[in-house]
Amino acid sequence: MINNILEYYIETWGCQMNEEDSEKLSGMLMQLGYIKTNIKESADVIIFNTCCVRENAEFKVYGNLGELKRLKKINSSLIISVCGCMMQQEGMPETILKKYPFVDIIFGTHNSHKFIEYLHRARIEDKSIIEISSKEEGIIEGIPVDRDNSIKAYVTIMYGCNNFCTYCIVPYVRGRERSRKPIDIENEIKDLVERGYKDITLLGQNVNSYGKDLEPKVDFADLLKRVNVIPNIKRIRFLTSHPKDLSSKVIDTISDCENVCEHVHLAVQSGSSKLLKKMNRKYDRNQYIDLINEIRIKIPNVAITTDIIIGFPGESEEDLLETISLVKEVQFDSAFTYIYSKRKGTPANEMTNQIPEDIKHKRFNRLVVAINECCANKNKEYEGKTVEVLVEGFSKNDSTKLTGRTRTSKVVNFCGNPEHIGQLINVYISKANSFSLNGEEI
Ligand code: SAM
Ligand code: SF4
Ligand code: F3S
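# FE3-S4 cluster complex -> structure
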């Protein structure tokens, strides 16, 4: 607390879904007059928004929670809340309270809109509050959002996932797919654009199945077209696409809409059709490659990025080689690589032929070598070219330089005019590195 103004500290693990939820929790607290602090010691409310997609995401939460016992001792009126995906797992809230009885509020992903009510209750009740709904409610609009960034914004277009990939816990902790109405999405984006936002990312676990639950019928391509004509909108992106649902109509729409950026993040997960089947991905290696070819033909200069899991149960040396050869064939611009992590309650957790940890790590390193080579090759294509960059701020590694992103989402560090932060400018690319580009504003 400073000068009688209450402060909150929020820490967020996991994906953009959790980041978006945290921005809403912040929005609700700001509306109550709280201000954000980066110092846990001065906070009146601490929130940990957790992720459970892999085991190491959970370890981070445990490590950080243990440290809070000391703060609660110093300040007994401190309210500690733990929320997010990890709390949706069966028995987890009880485990947390057993280990960390000083936690005041535990709530799940379907309850976050009621956070302020829980906060009031925590101030008067002398027992910990646990509020976890196992089932999603309808979509609640109008929650205030306090955004971390004033140039780029995420806008959720749909919640949940229906795909049940056999390794993944997300459908169990985020519920079934629910799409927001196009008008609500459009109004939110119009407001952001009017406030100066330049880069809008439409968010969902599988944006290509947007609208299946809506009446009248609307699909993701229709939504893209609608957002593309919002006055003064500059850049539209989307995350994430599932290969089984990325239609030719969507690819044509990306190509036709001038404000939709030339970047497709298309998680492949594996280059082995055998493993893709066991993962329940509903496409095979050849179908994925056909899709990439169609994207490259229809969207010139497109960047393609992906997610890959290594060490899925039953993965053989041949499967790994197929994944590495797919990486080389597709020439991804970048890839998020993950070591398979067993998740309780998912089918893959019960598969018998789990891969030993040391083999997973060795295979992971081999995959990363192949990916880094591709990233460097793709970046080289930018040398000597002039590209449009949205200037985001000063470079973290060299504060004399500015940093920003191309439409294809490449990071560019460059010499330029700081007054152009927040603007779209042209940058000449003089040098390509493995993970970024260097240049000068022109
Ligand atoms: N819905 C997105 C999609 O299918 O493209 C993915 C969302 S998930 C939060 C992000 C990535 O985490 C997945 O694409 C997958 O590669 C990885 N992932 C999910 N479950 C995993 C697990 N049990 N172990 C390792 N990686 C996992
Ligand atoms: Fe998980 Fe698959 Fe859904 Fe993505 S599509 S969130 S990987 S179940
Ligand atoms: Fe995202 Fe982690 Fe939840 S990846 S949906 S925050 S389990």
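# post-check
The chain is about 35% helix and 20% strand.
The mean pLDDT is 96.
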